[in-house]
Amino acid sequence: MVVTEISLVGWLVSTTGTATSTLLFFAIVGIMLLGLGIFLLHRQIERRIEQIGRL
Questions:
Q1: Distance between CA atoms of residues 41 and 4, nearest Å
Q2: Are the beta carbons of 13 and 53 closer than 8 angstroms?
Q3: Residue spans per domain, the chain
Q4: CA of 3: how far to CAs of 7, 17, 47, 49, in Å?
């Protein structure tokens, strides 16, 4: 997920001047959704690690 987000940000930066507004919009939405997904997955992993530590 992180690599996908980095790639999408790189694409967005490199094609800002030539991409259509629709593509830019969906790229920004995708970056936001991937960021949210990464954050939520990270929180879930932290909770699982804490559960394992309590065993």
A1: 15
A2: no
A3: 2-8+21-54
A4: 6, 23, 23, 23
pLDDT tens for each residue of the chain, 55 residues long = 999 999 999 999 999 899 999 999 999 999 999 999 999 999 999 999 999 998 8
Residue in 4, 55, 52 with CA at minimum distance from that of residue 30: 4
Residue 41: what pLDDT? Answer: 97
Q: Can you tell me the distance from the alpha carbon of 34 to that of 5, in angstroms, rounded to the nearest whole number?
A: 6
Continuous H helices in 1-55? 2-14, 21-54
3-class DSSP state of 43? helix
pTM for this entry: 0.82
